[in-house]
Amino acid sequence: MAGSTLEIKNLHVEIEGNEILKGVNLTIKGGEFHAIMGPNGTGKSTLASAIMGHPHYDITEGSVLLDGKEVLDMEVDERAHAGLFLGMQYPSEISGVTTSDFLRSSINAQREEGNEISLMNFIKEMDRVLDELDIDKNMAQRYLNEGFSGGEKKRNEILQLMLLKPEIAILDEIDSGLDIDALKVVAKGVNEMRSNSFGCLIITHYQRLLNYITPDQVHVMLDGRVVKSGGPDLAKRLEDEGYEWLKQEAGLEDKNSGQEV
Ligand SMILES: Nc1ncnc2c1ncn2[C@@H]1O[C@H](COP(=O)(O)OP(=O)(O)OP(=O)(O)O)[C@@H](O)[C@H]1O
Ligand SMILES: [Mg+2]
């Protein structure tokens, strides 16, 4: 299968009247891994949430197409059904729903009625992925994310990713809070997803993650726009030199310097 294409075109997003995204353009195709980096507060999570249909975000201009279909016209559950997945920077705790029940319902929500995954196959598949991600099996029986440590929540997002097998995934800071071994385990999980029918947008602050998950392209977001794109070398340069040179190149002065942005 050729895989899906996600096209973000001139996306403008406001939160409570403040424009956060000011015209984002980005295309992710099946088989491609893209990374987005950028300083705090530049709109990376806003981009992820707006694509997934979070109600706080007003889309004022632009479009997001999945294989030519307008994602912004879809209900939130339709977006997941169409093959989009968001691994969240701050996953929510859901009391009363076990991780295992949540995962099984999510898988079945993607399937046609009458074609639900059998309990036995689900458990087999879940156990396999739990092993692979080095997650304690008891965790699946706990309420979703409730009391999970920061790193456990992140691993749990990757567990969902690997079981749901979306066409296009946006992973928002899946590396934050992970210890070194967990980082490798999570990277292994994401790498295992690599195929022509899977495209991925990885939001991260740290080049280190990209040593384990090699991106095809690296994009830098500043002040609500993608201002630079390049190969993995771009991430290395950011690690060494920070963002100042890019702010200057993009004509954005540092806020701390007291000059207008
Ligand atoms: N509900 C809200 N009300 C007002 N401002 C908001 C709201 N949500 C987000 N913002 C603002 O939007 C901007 C972009 O936030 P966003 O979370 O997208 O940044 P980010 O690039 O993901 O940052 P980080 O790297 O710290 O995760 C920030 O200045 C943030 O304060
Ligand atoms: Mg963020």
Automatic annotation (TrEMBL):
<keyword id="KW-0067">ATP-binding</keyword>
<protein>
    <submittedName>
        <fullName>Fe-S cluster assembly ATPase SufC</fullName>
    </submittedName>
</protein>
<keyword id="KW-0547">Nucleotide-binding</keyword>
<dbReference type="InterPro" id="IPR027417">
    <property type="entry name" value="P-loop_NTPase"/>
</dbReference>
<dbReference type="InterPro" id="IPR010230">
    <property type="entry name" value="FeS-cluster_ATPase_SufC"/>
</dbReference>
<dbReference type="InterPro" id="IPR003439">
    <property type="entry name" value="ABC_transporter-like_ATP-bd"/>
</dbReference>
<comment type="similarity">
    <text>Belongs to the ABC transporter superfamily. Ycf16 family.</text>
</comment>
<feature type="domain" description="ABC transporter">
    <location>
        <begin position="6"/>
        <end position="248"/>
    </location>
</feature>
<dbReference type="InterPro" id="IPR003593">
    <property type="entry name" value="AAA+_ATPase"/>
</dbReference>
<dbReference type="InterPro" id="IPR017871">
    <property type="entry name" value="ABC_transporter-like_CS"/>
</dbReference>
<dbReference type="Pfam" id="PF00005">
    <property type="entry name" value="ABC_tran"/>
</dbReference>
